[in-house]
């Protein structure tokens, strides 16, 4: 199943905001205040119960509608954790209030299936990117209002980000571009961050260095930018880490998730085709990324998330051990298995493992996004060689020589 053109998915997600944790998969998400280990406060929401019904007479391409489902495509917390929003495969935008308890505020239609969403720092709007390259905004203050188109690309959008002050919106697309626009006037393009050679899969504006942007791509690089000017500061070739010994193929090093922690300026990345997490540290003085640690996973990783204090959570494709936790000690992350929060949330996930069945055994989320390459010159030269060889063989044929002599005699007899 493709959640959006070219994207095989969706993959389960793990989100942390303060003491709230959400694990999503399929049509459901599980939410809990994971630090309150003595309280059973699990909240479960199933998108199939949302009030909006599937459209019966129309589809995005004008063809008769096919079978739809409610798999969650993207979700996000607001900065304070007060709001949580998601979009599903049935073209719904669902908004929740999380405090004092979880409550669904609205279910609104979106124009197309979405690939990413984010809530503004002011917590007044939700920005949603879709597979046609458009970004729409939806009001939180007036949760029943329809969306407003803000900007458009000519390519599938894969991710979007906002500067911490909401002044700039950054969009990443399939055609290798990162575009920076003014949020209040999105038609004003401030800059392009150009340099990736494949689709840009993830972008993150660094919260405690708000002028800097991290990006990852199908070209197997992790890049650091001054995004307002479009200047590239650093490019890290991930295949130089030699994680995947069998090949240097860049496709193996495409990044599916990025998590950032202000405590220590650490970045954790999860690979699309390698069961591993790599951790980097941002050196502010040198303005570059330094590799710190590699964590090998025994199963495919679905998502990663940092706690505010630097603890690293990993959601993986294993029912018995669905979550891993690593605690930083002297600049290295050590596994912890008896953490009370880990025990609590792991039990919730195991008890509802059926929500992840549709995401099992998928080799890649991005396999259809890579550019197809064609060597037309070699094909031309090969055909030319075959044609010349055919002509050479034909000249050696006795019948061909006899025919040529007959032609010469006839030409000689002409007046």
Helical residue percent? Answer: 10-25%
Number-wise, the strands total 30
Low-confidence stretches: 54-66
What count of helical segments does DSSP give? 3
End-to-end distance: 76 Å
Question: What would the keywords be for this entry?
Answer:
42% strand, four-stranded antiparallel β-sheet, mainly beta, 3 helices, 415 residues
Descriptive overview:
This protein has 415 residues and is mainly β. Helices cover 12% and strands 42% of the residues. The longest helix has 20 residues, at 376-395. The termini are far apart. Mean pLDDT is 88; it is low at 54-66.
In summary, what is this structure?
The chain has 415 residues and is mainly β. It is 12% helix and 42% strand. Strand 17 (178-182) and strand 18 (189-193) form a beta hairpin.
Topology:
Blueprint: E1 2-4, E2 7-8, E3 13-17, E4 20-25, E5 28-33, E6 43-46, E7 72-77, E8 83-88, E9 92-97, E10 103-109, E11 114-119, E12 125-130, E13 134-139, E14 148-152, E15 157-162, E16 168-173, E17 178-182, E18 189-193, E19 200-205, E20 212-217, E21 221-226, E22 231-237, E23 255-261, E24 266-271, E25 276-283, E26 288-296, E27 301-306, E28 312-316, E29 323-329, E30 332-335, H1 340-351, H2 376-395, H3 398-413
Antiparallel strand pairs: 1-2, 3-4, 4-5, 5-6, 7-8, 8-9, 9-10, 11-12, 12-13, 13-14, 15-16, 16-17, 17-18, 19-20, 20-21, 21-22, 23-24, 24-25, 25-26, 27-28, 28-29, 29-30
Pfam families: WD40 (PF00400)
Region (Disordered): 388-415
InterPro entries: Trm82, WD40/YVTN_repeat-like_dom_sf, WD40_repeat_dom_sf, WD40_rpt
